[in-house]
Amino acid sequence: MSTISKIMEHNQTFVKDEVYRDFETTKFPDKKMVILTCMDTRLTELLPKAIGFCNGDAKIIKNAGALISHPFGSVMRSILVAIYELGAEEVCVIGHKDCGMSGLRHDSFLDKVKEKGIDQNQLDFLRSAGIDLEKWLTGFDRVEDSVAHSVALVRNHPLLPEGIKVHGLVIDPHTGGLTTVEIQESITVQH
């Protein structure tokens, strides 16, 4: 049985048994926060537990590396929608150690693209259309620098209203431990 078949089979039971009732909430984030984090599978359950959040507490946006690559791309639009339409009052960019985007190099990525059957003509077409594949397919060297870059893009965005706090953190995907990159208020950590 394929994975999608298993998903559909499970879903029928999930709905029939009304398991969804355990997850009922509204579309508005209870803690008024929008989080940008990585799509890494280790963070799916670990991150909310490590920060003490439950279903419905935050809007969570996930992409490769928790990166904002363009100030007018879909990630920034999602952050702004969370603020203006859904009541978020804080933004938190949470990168993580041991990220797949760390050290990602365009040349090895493009080699894999070709191995999967994408023709050189397709790549040439994209380049002729103005797509800088080398830049687009390159990761970062330090997660802290990447988080700081994304935080700066949000803080300096012309559509970000005054009073929205923007924070940057890094999570350890093994322990859930957090380190700060940039926080917009003083915090006290009890030991």
Write a structural description.
- This protein has 191 residues and is an alpha/beta fold.
- It has 2 domains: 26-97 and 143-182, Carbonic anhydrase (Beta-carbonic Anhydrase, Chain A); 105-138, no CATH class.
- 37% of the residues lie in helices and 16% in strands.
- It has helices at 3-16, 43-51, 74-84, 106-115, 120-128, 133-136, 143-155; strands at 33-38, 58-63, 90-96, 165-171, 178-182.
- Strands 2-1-3-4-5 form a 5-stranded mixed beta sheet, sandwiched between helices.
- Strand 1 (33-38), helix 2 (43-51) and strand 2 (58-63) form a beta-alpha-beta unit.
- The longest helix is centred in the N-terminal third of the chain and has 14 residues, at 3-16.
- It is globular, with a radius of gyration of 19 Å.
- The model has no long low-confidence stretch (mean pLDDT 94).
Lay out the secondary structure.
Blueprint lengths: L2 H14 L16 E6 L4 H9 L6 E6 L10 H11 L5 E7 L9 H10 L4 H9 L4 H4 L6 H13 L9 E7 L6 E5 L9
Parallel strand pairs: 1-2, 1-3, 3-4
Antiparallel strand pairs: 4-5
Profile the largest sheet: 5 strands, mixed
> Would you count the extended β strands for me?
5
Strand portion: 15-25%
Topology pattern, helix = H, strand = E: HEHEHEHHHHEE
Q: Provide mean pLDDT, rounded.
A: 94
Task: Find the CATH superfamily of the largest domain.
Answer: Carbonic anhydrase
Q: What class, by secondary structure content?
A: alpha/beta
Name the shape in a single word: globular
Low-confidence stretches: none
Count structural domains: 2
CATH topology of the largest domain: Beta-carbonic Anhydrase, Chain A
Strand order of the biggest β-sheet = 2-1-3-4-5
Query: Which value, in Å, is the CA radius of gyration?
Result: 19 Å
Pfam family, one: Pro_CA
Family: Belongs to the beta-class carbonic anhydrase family.
EC number: 4.2.1.1
Catalytic activity: hydrogencarbonate + H(+) = CO2 + H2O
